[in-house]
Give the backbone structure.
Amino acid sequence: MDNSKGTARLINRSAPAAMGPNRPVRAASLPGVRPSDFPGPMANRHQEPPRLSCPPLEKFSPSDWNSVASAFAMSPAVNLGQSWREPQDSFRPATIRTGWRAGKLWVYAELDDDDIFNPSGVFNEPFFLHGDALEIFLRPAGQSAYFEFHVGPAGQLFQLRIPSAEAFARQAGTEAGSWKIRKPVINVRTRVDRERGRWFVLAAIQREEIVEKGGSPGEWMFSFSRYDHTHGENCPVLSSTSPHAKLGFHRQQEWGCLRFY
């Protein structure tokens, strides 16, 4: 998204640009770190797209973070990395787990962060331009339309239904207003632990909100991405669970496969 004139515009996150207070976030080339520094989160570098099982969850309390952590303890994890470049010194790990219960996909994220912030408080605005954000992409197999959700540390929500990959390619750089989902379709809870330098996301998405005609209820394409901003830095650190050959979070050929069982 591009908010340089106060209006959400589509970008493909594939061309470098600087970002000031009123500049759009785009892909940036920044110094790297050794992959061995973070062997877990770097597991997606030079690998095939992840295949992730989405198991049923035992009953838990979404308002109790200990209960949440316990419920997801046996769910397979997928880590974020920077497969399109040498990882940055400022890269911080993040882990995602999924599960399903009562007809909902549940997403549980743990994100290490040295500077947790996002000042935006407006629903359905591209707040990832101004601070930290977790990005969730979902597309049921056999379906053209896909969904893009952003969650901020304070529970901010930005959500789009994009008609197809082709539609995105045609309209990149144009306004995204017609693709906004006007009412919240996912429920989110967040927790910020500044002492440990970590924030948490719990998101619940009704499968019926995502699966459309022709779409598979049991197999979805997915990608989880991140904008990790730091005060005083022009560009956020970008990372993804998808092993993108070049920076472009909408590159669906590198998204993972999520199977419900």
Q: What stands out?
A: The radius of gyration is 17 Å. Helices lie at 65-71, 165-171, 207-210. Residues 6 and 131 are 16 Å apart (CA to CA). The domain at 35-260 is CATH 2.60.40.1190 (Immunoglobulin-like).
